[in-house]
Amino acid sequence: FYAGRAGTFVESNISLSLQSNWQRTETMNSPLSTQYWQVGATSGDSVAYNEGELNFIFDHAMDRPGDQEIEIAYAGALPLDKDWQIVIDDTYVSNSVNGFSMGYQLELEGSFDCEFGVGDFAGREVYFYADDGSDGYYSTNQSSADDPRIQNGLNFRILHLASSRELIYSYQPDGVSDWTELARINLSTGVASGLSGNGTLTGQLPSRSQNLFFGVDIDKYSTEATPIENIEIGGIEISGYTPPIAPPASLAGKSFILTPSSGGSKSVPDQVTFTADTISFGFSGNLLESDSYNYSDGTVTYDGEEVIEFTYTSSTEGTYEEGYDE
Hints:
The chain is mainly beta. Helices cover 0% and strands 50% of the residues. It has no helices and 26 strands. Strand 23 (286-296) and strand 24 form a beta hairpin.
């Protein structure tokens, strides 16, 4: 028997139930709610809140390298019959920190667990692994040699789509608008795919009627102390997700009213109409100009380099961006 932790106990009347209020946003401007979050740390290690960031502080570890950990458990039971996403903002680990893993976990105890995060094992990398609790295991990674942008700050997103029963793991370097998909797991088939290869989980995977639980886990394997502002995150958003609506295959016969929300204003909105091969512009029913156009997957190109990108939020409306093709 090895006793890794010791303490006192007292009898109490306790009733445990699943926390069904699973949506929550934490900005780190105030301490995490003890109703939803539990922070655990090895002796001498701790968390601190500083300028809107949650910091992870590790004591000097010369006598116990590889044995330092800070973990945060979230009580919300994430339902697998709903669409949701977890977005972790501003994950930052200083270049002076070596030998660590900072992972965002989903698990169903005894059956399925996976971790997605950033680490330094033989160099900085974004990594993912999944274990089905049996003989099935899958992992993939993206090194800083392949994507130097991960050396700096990162956002992470875990997306669950109930219709396809997929978990999709993506990262976003600082200053970049697009997300890079690192891996995805199908909870029905066990099929796994990622940037460095494919695989299959063969064990019993969570069903649609079950829940997953989220946590944050930081392990430090090096011996140096890690002071404030060296390992931190800026926020966690756990929310419902509305999948984007696919744009129509053709715009022929459609017409739109374009109301600007940024980049300037107009006293009356633009109007645009489409035939099979012509785009026409005007306002208040008045035709001003027409041109030929090309269209593909929501993007219209006309007059050589002019571009309009349409993003649908319903079958008849959405948002647009205008610019030019560089």
